[in-house]
Design a protein that fits this description.
D-Maltodextrin-Binding Protein, domain 2, 11 helices, alpha/beta, 46% helix, 2 domains, 5-stranded mixed sheet, globular
Length: 330
């Protein structure tokens, strides 16, 4: 065989080998996800956020091919969990489930010190329900409607006490907005959870509470919800009116329950997650399991989530400014 022919064969063989090596990683790479996905929840097990996360995880493996594992990392109104997600690789294997309203409110309260800004550092991957705050009172409270409470607060400025699940939560924001819109004052008593704020009304430690209406479940004989802060009624507690229906200032505050991911997630990962979340949130099984827990599960597209959060950011801005002033005085 001539030298020229041998050289030609070597070139062909070398080209084939190079082509095989270049293609091998693409051929060997499995389709995402290749392993279980973690959903971080910034509250203890059994709370409202945890309910939505576990309901989603119960069904989403059918569309993802991998299970989702819920990890509770409570603290700082979900900021600790959010920071853990941001500190992980942006590969879609570590996500966050959180009430978008509380997430936003906490970031605004922290200002420049916030470790995570939901509207800048993260992106929604689909809403799976709506967290609706209610004005609750003990079952035998003298306040039979919100107007009764407002009248009592005006007659006794600063004397009434009210509970909420913590400063920086959407529940507190709804409560403060209610006070401001109605020109009244009251002493706020923060708790570490929604059930804690509800129990404060049950045991009459406070005169009223602002907490998630789902906390009514199982306690209907001990507390009553007078109104909700959203413009719409809750799907599970349809008898409870919105403030606007009662001729009072409509607060327009509700927290979309959202699955969040790092802003730098690969496009194909975002597409797959969005699709899977939508399918689960629209399913009858998901609606049934959330309803049993007192929550309202349904699908919210990302554009609606962002629109709602931007509207609330406008509402929260003067409240946050006022709260910061009061904190400096202390």
């Amino acid at each position: 065989m001539s030298l020229k022919r041998k050289i030609g064969q070597m070139i062909v063989v070398t080209a084939c080998i190079v082509g095989f090596i270049a293609a091998a990683p693409q051929q060997a790479r499995a389709e995402w996800p290749e392993k279980p996905i973690t959903i971080m929840v910034g509250y203890s097990a059994g709370g409202g956020t945890d309910i939505y996360a576990r309901a989603l995880a119960s069904f989403i493996h059918e569309h993802m091919g991998q299970p989702m594992i819920v990890v509770n990392k409570p603290g700082a109104a979900s900021m600790i969990a959010a920071k853990a997600v941001m500190d992980s690789r942006p590969d879609g294997y570590t996500l966050l489930m959180v009430n978008g309203g509380t997430f936003l409110a906490k970031a605004m309260m922290l200002g420049d010190k916030t470790p995570v800004d939901p509207l800048q550092d993260m992106q929604p991957l689909g809403g799976v329900g709506q967290f609706i705050t209610a004005l609750m009172v003990p079952i035998d409270s003298p306040f039979k409607k919100p107007q009764d409470l407002v009248a009592a607060a005006k007659a006794n400025p600063g004397k009434l006490r009210w509970a909420h699940p913590g400063r920086g939560t959407i529940n507190m924001m709804a409560g403060v907005l209610f006070l401001q819109e109605n020109g009244i004052t009251a002493q706020d008593v923060p708790f570490k959870s929604g059930p804690g704020a509800r129990n404060a009304s049950v045991t009459k430690q406070v005169d009223f509470s602002f907490t998630g209406i789902h906390n009514m479940t199982g306690f209907e004989s001990k507390v009553i919800a007078l109104a909700v802060s959203h413009t719409e009624r809750d799907k599970n507690f349809k008898d409870v009116p919105a403030f606007g229906e009662l001729g009072m200032p409509a607060l327009g505050v509700a927290g979309p329950m959202v699955l969040w991911g790092h802003k730098d997630l690969p496009a194909e990962v975002v597409t797959k997650l969005n699709s899977a979340v939508e399918k689960v949130a629209k399913s009858k099984g998901y609606a049934t399991i959330t309803k049993k827990a007192g929550a309202s599960g349904f699908y919210l597209p990302n554009d609606k989530v962002l629109s709602q959060l931007n509207t609330m950011k406008t509402k929260f801005t003067p409240i946050v400014a006022e709260l910061r002033k009061s904190q400096k005085k202390k």
